[in-house]
Automatic annotation (TrEMBL):
Residues 33-337 form the Leucine-binding protein domain. Belongs to the leucine-binding protein family. It comes from Acidovorax temperans. Pfam families: Peripla_BP_6 (PF13458). Keywords: Signal. This is Twin-arginine translocation pathway signal protein. SUPFAM superfamilies: Periplasmic binding protein-like I.
Amino acid sequence: MWGRRDWLRSTLAIGTTTFGSRAWSQSESTRGITVTQVVDMSAAQQDISRDFLTGSRAAWVDLNARGGIQGKPVQHLVLETDGTSAQLQSAWKTAHQQVSCVALSGCVGNAAAQTLARYQLASETATPLPLVAPWLHQAVEEKSTDTVFDVFADLRAQITHALKSLASMGVPELGVAYAAGQDTALAQAAVRQAAQEQSVKVQRVHSAAQLTQPIVLFVGGTPELHAFVGQLKLPAGRQCYVIALADVNLQVLAQMGNLPKRVSIIATQAVPLVSASLPVVRAYREALAKLYDEPPSPQGLAGFIAARYTAEVLQQMTAPLTRANVLAALQQRKALNVGGWAPPYQDKKRSAAFVTQSMLSSDGRIVG
């Protein structure tokens, strides 16, 4: 399934721990500061996590090649998990035990980031690690806002963007399908509110074989979407459009194959288009081409931005780079411009959302 990936586990200035194989000790770290990334590599999540992690790796390697943070190298400690509570809690504790670790950065995927945010909330640690730029699609509890710094568009913003685009084209109605295991109540609330705002009627679709609408919004991941689309029964000559959200990797979906003809898939993404001319996007494409044999992807760009955002906060600090000082700097939520991309805040929360869309056409091309 992962034919295009030659997964590199030992690259410049990078440490990786896979729970169950070996433990990472402080003596392995390089001098300087450590930034830890907790990654969910479970079967349902790995298509998103692998690209996101590759983007983050590229950013940190590129940063260290340019002198690191304030002249200090950054140890990028990767803690791979299977997404279970036990391994996520173990990873969370491991990160906190690293004296040089100043932040959790770019933790992925959504369920893992949500779990880590809950650990932060329940922690009695005197100086908690800030959770920076996680791949988090749900709002965190109010009390978590002083330790969790999410910068990507959440589920509601993604759905609103998708339905707004459809409303602008005069689409009056669409079906909505939810993958098993999703927080259906949360997604339904977001869909219901967005539909009311955009005056679009939605109808729940329980089976792909029963789909009657030419457009359907799918809430779920890549494997679930592949299975759903594979069950579509389209009348002769009919075209179908499936609107997916940011947890769908179009490149992996195309590689999985066996997609029916006359089906186009449009995926929202919480980052600029990978073909955009923004400096941060160009930097991502250049670093990826130099370091890895990987095509660019929205999830990879998100991982790159997560690392660059974290690095920008650290780079601008005038106080010593300690855990407490980094947390205090993040809590100020200063306006930052990361190569043309700027996460907006208002009252300690995201005040707006950056969402774009790409399409996997019925002939297998990715547009956007």
